[in-house]
């Protein structure tokens, strides 16, 4: 195992903060705004529900696999560190580069974009306000993350608890007051070119995405060998149950045909219809708070990858990007860097497309990590955590990852090539940076 650089981030995160970050980072825009696209691609409500369940199973298998790897490498950087220690320096760099240039900014821009849709509906404004709202949300959360990590972690705990209110209300109201049959609903008019069941599962994976980001905070946990696996497994399991119940609740309350017609406006319509104008506003506010918590989790974790890479002089402007504030030990310049890239993503891509492309890109490296568990099993007999039902669980994770890549290649070939191009661009940059610092590869 390679020796890691001396870290300066504070180890102040306990189990409550860790699992709140996992759940808070996962539950956000996806479960609310992907209902329509999942339903459209699946073709009927039964397959839509099954898509959410299958997406959760794939995610849980991946989480169980990564938990074993992460417990052996409890350092700041997460996937970036895992890939390097298993496959070498260049592969590790590309995993980190992918997250800071493509995946991180894209997912932040996507969440902020979905949140801006809800905000414009909330205030009754036109679509021209979406980008200003999205930018404002990123700036607000980014500023908070310039402070000590305890503040962002506390915000994650508060928003995680707060988001349970609208979620519980939607589940209870839908299950007990809905008069639709959640199973067997079909749409009379649907554009079949929008996708298929595979694309539906891909859409749900954006809703589940974010679980691995807690691994980026390994260097800031009090006891990462124990906390990291526990937070990942319990967090994903809880979200799987919640997502299934929400989907059934929504389908019991709103006909599939209406969800198809409403699209992105389905969450606002449902809350108003269920709880009246005032209650609908309060519920929409709760969902917005939920999404702010998700955005905070991503703004808390991605700059840590930039910091980890900059501290090792892997990227341009490393000295500046590795800067930490004196009091809070927060990666200030790294946070600003990620925010600027997210702003750029907003201008060129819509949130829905961004969400699919960022899931595809990260799953390319998830697959490498999933295969890596077999390599580590041969190298290390003593492990802080062992994946249950090995090797079945890693095989399920790998199969799910291959499924994701094939579906998105078929669904958006040009977007995939563009995003992979950004990743490959990192190679010449890496060699130039290393030549500048006089380091041999």
Which properties best describe this structure?
mainly alpha, Amino acid/polyamine transporter I, disordered N terminus, transmembrane helix, membrane
Summarize the model shown.
By secondary structure, the protein is mainly α. It has helices at residues 15-26, 30-33, 35-42, 45-72, 79-87, 89-123, 130-144, 149-177, 197-208, 224-253, 256-262, 266-311, 318-321, 332-348, 351-379, 392-411, 413-424, 426-436.
What is this structure's SSE topology?
Blueprint: H1 15-26, H2 30-33, H3 35-42, H4 45-72, H5 79-87, H6 89-123, H7 130-144, H8 149-177, H9 197-208, H10 224-253, H11 256-262, H12 266-311, H13 318-321, H14 332-348, H15 351-379, H16 392-411, H17 413-424, H18 426-436
Helix pairs in contact: 1-8, 1-10, 1-12, 3-4, 3-9, 3-11, 4-9, 4-10, 4-15, 4-16, 5-6, 5-15, 6-7, 6-12, 6-14, 6-15, 6-17, 7-12, 7-14, 8-10, 8-12, 9-15, 9-16, 12-14, 15-16, 15-17
Protein name: Amino acid permease
GO molecular function: L-amino acid transmembrane transporter activity
Subcellular location: Membrane
